[in-house]
Every structure is written in C-alpha cells, then in structure tokens.
Amino acid sequence: MLKRLFFFSMMLLGLTSAAIAQEFEVKKYEINVAIKPDEMKVDVQAKLRLVNLSDPSLADRILLDSNKPRFGFYVNLKTQVTSMKVNGEPAVFKTNEERGNVLRVFTEMTTAIAAAKELEVDFAYSLPAADRGIGLHVAAGESYLLPQSFWVPTPHTPFAEHGADTAPFSLTVTAPAGLKIISSGIRKSDNSFEQSMAAQPFVIAGDYEMVTRGGETHPVEVYYPRGLNEAGQQQAQRLAAEAEKISAFYAKYFNVAALAPFRVVATQARQLSTITSDNFGAVREVSFATVGAVTVDDNLFRRDLLDQGTVELIAGAAARAWIDGQVLLRGRGTGMLRDALPSYLVAQYLGERYGAIQRENSFDRFRRAYAIIAKDDAPLLNQSLLDRNYTTSVYNKGAVIWRLIEKQLGKQAFDN
Fold first, then answer.
1. pLDDT band at residue 6 using 50, 70 and 90 as cut-offs
2. What pTM, to 2 d.p., does this model score?
3. Nearest-5° angle of CA 339, CA 14, CA 76?
4. For an engineered disulfide with 236, which of 144, 224, 256, 382 has Cβ 3.0 to 4.6 Å away?
5. Beta-sheet strands, E only, within 101-147
6. Which among 345, 344, 351, 321 has a CA at the least distance from the CA of 219?
7. Terminal CA-to-CA distance of the chain, rounded, Å?
C-alpha cells in the first residue's frame, strides 16, 4: 500500500501544480565547474535542459498579457553572469535581486521560448566565495558547493509551492591536485559524476581517505579526513557498516536495488537536515542530506561509537534515494514525502535493527518534539521551508501521520 500510495500521491501533487502559468521543468543539468581556491571563487558553465509543461495555447495568452512575462532563473546573489544562451543563441539578459537573498537572471519571454516543447539554456558565470557559509565555501583545504547556496541556476526556489528543481545531472570538476572530488551518482572518473536520479547538484572537495562497503549490491562510501589515528579509522568502518545495513534495509523494503553508492562525507559545512528528535538536535545542525549523500561533522571521527542521532541521520538521508530520487516531487505537500516519510522510515529501520521497542520510542520522540509547537502550528499543506517551525513540524508531525495511516490500514497492507 505504501508504494501505491506514494506514486498516487505524486500524481495528485502533479495535478495541483498543473500549468496555470508558463511552467518549465528541468530535465537534466550538465555542469562544468572549476574550483579556484587561490582566487576564492568558482567558474561555472551550466547547461539546463528544460521541458515546457504548459498548455501550448498558453504561449499566446501569456505574450498578449500587458505584464510581459520573463524567462528567468535564480542564482546566488553574488553570481557574476557573463553569458546566457537559449538554444545556442546568445540572449540579452538582465539581473534583479529578489526576496530570499537570491539573484534572478532573466531574458524576455519570446514566442519561440513559450511555444518550445523542450529547450536548452546555457550560463557562464563566476561565483566568489571568500566567506564561509552553510552552503558555499572555497579554500585550499576544503571547498563545498551545496544546493542551498543557489550555485546552480534553477527556474524555481525550494521555498515556493513548486519546490526544489531536482533532476538527473552530469558534473565535471576541475580542482587543485590532491583534492578528492565528491558528489552523488556514479563516479565516471576522479573528477566527474553521472547522476541518473532526481537530485540537486553539489560538490565537496577536500583531502580525504575513503572506506567502502557493500560491494555492488549495497554500495557505501565513507570519506573521512586524511591522517586519522586508528580509533578514527575504526569509527569510519563502523559508519560504513551501519550505512551498508541501512542501504540493505531500504532495498528490501522498497524491493528496488540501490542505483548508485550512498556517500557519507566528513565536512565542516553546516546545514539543517533530516530529523528532529530529543537525541538528534546536535547532529542535525552540522549536516547536509540529499539524494545519495549526507555530510557528517569531522568530530564524529573522534568518538569511539555511533550514537543514535548519527544512526538516525544516516538512515533518514539514505531513504531519499528511494523517495525523492526516483520520483519527481512537486507541488504543495511534498514535504510529507520528501521529509516526513524518511522520518517514518527511520523508525522502521530502528525497529528492525534494535527491536520493536526502539520503533515505538522513535514515534514517542517525534510526538514530544512536535508537542512543543503544536498549539501554533500551521497545516502541513501550508508549510514552507521558510517557516520557522518547518523542520519541527514536518519531520515529526508528518512521521506521526504516516504512522496513523499505517495503523488505520494495518502494517502489512501499508508496507505492500
């Protein structure tokens, strides 16, 4: 039932965001990025292959509107765009600072653009990164370009109803010698990746060693700082072993094999991530989770065990490859699938790994965490990533709602 409900939900979400305006969807990203620590910047060439989801007749209606629409994309506020092309032809573009501290790069909507079923848009730009942010940093020792920094142009922002522009991508990175390049998807070479799942492009470059587990069936890669002592290396092995168990659990649960390695990366990047619970607060503040990868804080490798918060973090992040990665999540309510469903599945994994009591304890923690804000909380369909209580509400209340559905249907019917 869960699988059927999941895909049916995708159909409904697609219908709710049907083409009431000119609507373009990213089909694929093709990105070449040069990381230049000595100049504290990156140079990027990005090609977006787009699909026009609008009704063909809408093109004429839009162009007759007195407020002529724009063909625009959101990028980091500091982006210095040097060129924009549409279907290979140079475009006259302008930029405008938008709410949310982002820059919008746009050109005028033309009949050819509005009527096209598919089209390609190319950007060339530089992005300075002298300051360390939660999603963007360029330095000799470590560099990271994460989706929340808007380092790649997107037609939408993740804060609006449409949600994040996830899509397959190919990525090639040029960086100083000696740095390990990490992203998600299949590694094609030391510095290139091909991601077939719906994901957001990201890059982490640093001085890493790696441990692998799972072979071709449940592939896992853990990247940790070079030069760890024996205790730190043992911790990396524990982390890889746990991630392998998690990957095997989801492959069995969804009856779908992993499409690419799941990567766990030690980094100093800071970003809120998967779950909020009594034990999880400290871990989620230092992590970034996406389809096929998750970051953990360097300090994890100074410990001699994996705490429950770390296990929850890894389990929640790994689930995204089977949820967000294999279906385009768009429209109102996607948080119930992208963020709440992984929380529910974490509880299921803990139950299988450590016993049924741990599953029940997880849902108790979700309920307690949500109770703090329940009085003033908004409906889940109205939640936005900009809302102060989004994480506490969606990740916890949403997981409990999935649990209520499971109780109503019966676990066997729900899982199948």
1. very low
2. 0.88
3. 60
4. 224
5. 102-108, 118-128, 136-137, 142-145
6. 321
7. 5
